[in-house]
């Protein structure tokens, strides 16, 4: 008898891994009946033809936002104390005290953080979040749907959203087993595990250790190491165009070698446009000395600013902008949805550029899959002022300690060295590929093409012992 699995999409970020890849097809081949339990504005039935059940209610308990923000701050404080660090709190961003509502919420968060940054306080907040969410209309709607359709398992595609909490609680209260996928490589040390499930699906042994380190309520037998579908498309040669086709489709010059500059969001890199400009100046200088180079600028899909426009216009002789093929279905960052076409576009950009330059991005792993180096910019811009975040703190984060060596990426720490660094990469004198591949394996695991299969195998294992 087929097992009925609900693939729960609390927000849009899970679409990339679990709706736009071969994940569903592989699940059906493994004799699972799959329904997308959809909390997003994206119509899976209409756009993809997949079976879906829409969650209409979006209401949170009034205090859930306060408690979830406080939980993050309390956990980060606790991590600093427990592990004798000072870095965890740098994952926090300033609160807003503007307006009566923001002031009240932020003061409550501050009070909870001040007095509750310990095991007892964190347990209290976790309990209050669950208590509040069980009273919401969203919880009641989710419970009605689950009682009607009785899935054998609820698989949550992202452990971060507050929108997931009520629905997961409804499943657990009905005795339906639940699991969540840890979405990103930096999520665990950032204290973003709001969804508490019966099982956890992680990318690698490294991430499994992090779950046990940061989530003491999780036991080892609840964790499955599966890899992530995020990088599977990079190993699919069928989506690659020929070099001539790729160049032609984007009006590129066949006589040029291109460098990818991968843009960042405004929070991570508020002065990002100036690093793109520095690279453009270096390319111009090298072109004046006999090279034939260009830059492909791929913007961050959730960056809605116009901060690059002036640079793109000024350096149009060397920069070509190729936008990600993502589609907005709402106004917030997690309502910008990827497309299957963008998988192919990204893979082709990785394949047909010489290397990638960026600020602290996981694109180091995308390019590593194509045997290409990553150049991390790590110097201050003269435009840096008080109140503007220095990008240097990104590289001090805990998740960057996972790299096997400094050689897992190339580093430019002084602007005056940039032109020679670019020249040496183009000339093949320096490369980060060997060590970046080691880093890739640490983070992603040894079988990056098998993640979807491994998740379904794990669900089968769970099914055999718990779902019959």
Write the layout of secondary structure elements.
Blueprint: E1 3-9, H1 15-18, H2 23-29, E2 32-38, H3 44-48, E3 52-54, H4 64-82, H5 100-116, H6 119-133, H7 137-149, E4 153-156, H8 165-173, E5 178-181, E6 199-202, H9 205-214, E7 223-225, H10 243-249, E8 257-262, H11 272-287, E9 293-298, H12 309-314, E10 319-321, E11 327-328, E12 336-337, H13 340-351, E13 355-358, H14 363-368, E14 373-377, E15 410-412, H15 418-426, H16 433-444, H17 451-467
Parallel strand pairs: 1-2, 1-4, 2-3, 4-5, 5-6, 6-7, 8-9, 8-13, 9-10, 13-14, 14-15
Antiparallel strand pairs: 11-12
Helix pairs in contact: 4-5, 4-6, 7-8, 11-15
Protein name: UDP-glycosyltransferase
Give a written overview of the molecule.
With 468 residues, the chain is an alpha/beta fold. Helix content is 39%, strand content 13%. The strands form three sheets. A seven-stranded parallel sheet has the order 3-2-1-4-5-6-7. It is globular and about 70 Å long.
């Amino acid at each position: 008898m087929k097992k009925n699995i609900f693939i729960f999409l609390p927000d849009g970020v899970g679409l990339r891994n679990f709706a736009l890849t071969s994940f569903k097809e592989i699940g059906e081949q493994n004799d699972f009946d799959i329904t997308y339990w959809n909390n997003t504005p994206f119509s899976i039935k209409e756009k993809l033809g997949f079976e879906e059940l829409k969650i209409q209610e979006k209401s949170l308990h009034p205090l859930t936002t306060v408690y979830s923000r406080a939980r993050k701050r309390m956990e980060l404080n606790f991590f600093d104390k427990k592990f004798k660090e000072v870095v965890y709190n740098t994952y926090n961003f300033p609160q807003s005290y503007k307006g009566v509502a923001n002031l009240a919420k932020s003061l409550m968060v501050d009070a909870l953080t001040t007095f509750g940054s310990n095991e007892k306080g964190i347990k209290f907040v976790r309990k209050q979040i669950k208590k509040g969410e069980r009273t919401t209309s969203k919880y009641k709607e989710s419970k009605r749907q689950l009682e009607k359709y009785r899935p054998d398992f609820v698989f949550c595609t992202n452990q971060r959203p507050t929108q997931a909490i009520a629905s997961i609680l409804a499943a657990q209260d009905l005795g339906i087993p639940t699991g969540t996928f840890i979405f990103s490589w930096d999520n665990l040390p950032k204290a973003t595990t709001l969804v508490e499930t019966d099982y956890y699906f992680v990318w690698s042994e490294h991430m499994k250790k992090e779950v046990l380190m940061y989530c003491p309520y999780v036991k080892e037998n609840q964790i499955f190491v599966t890899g992530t579908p995020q990088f599977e498309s990079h190993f699919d040669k069928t989506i690659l165009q020929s070099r001539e086709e790729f160049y032609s489709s984007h009006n590129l010059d066949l006589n040029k070698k291109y460098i990818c500059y991968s843009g960042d969001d405004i929070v991570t890199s508020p002065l990002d446009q100036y690093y793109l400009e520095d690279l453009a100046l270096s390319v111009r200088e090298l072109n004046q000395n006999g090279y034939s180079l260009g830059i492909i600028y791929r913007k961050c899909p959730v960056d809605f600013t116009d901060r690059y426009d002036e640079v793109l216009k000024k350096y149009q002789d060397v920069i070509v902008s190729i936008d990600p093929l993502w589609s907005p279905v709402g106004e917030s960052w997690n309502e910008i949805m990827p497309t299957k076409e963008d998988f192919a576009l990204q893979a082709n950009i990785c394949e047909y550029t010489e290397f990638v330059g960026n600020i602290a991005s996981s694109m180091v792993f995308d390019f590593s899959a194509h045997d290409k180096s990553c150049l991390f910019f790590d110097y201050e811009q003269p435009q840096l002022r008080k109140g503007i975040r220095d990008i240097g703190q990104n590289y001090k984060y805990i998740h960057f300690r996972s790299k096997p060596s400094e050689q897992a990426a190339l580093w430019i720490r002084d602007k005056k060295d940039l032109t020679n660094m670019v020249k040496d990469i183009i000339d093949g004198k320096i490369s980060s590929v060997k060590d970046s591949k080691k880093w890739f394996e640490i983070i992603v695991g040894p079988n990056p093409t098998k993640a979807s299969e491994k998740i379904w195998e794990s669900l089968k294992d769970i099914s055999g012992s718990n779902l019959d």
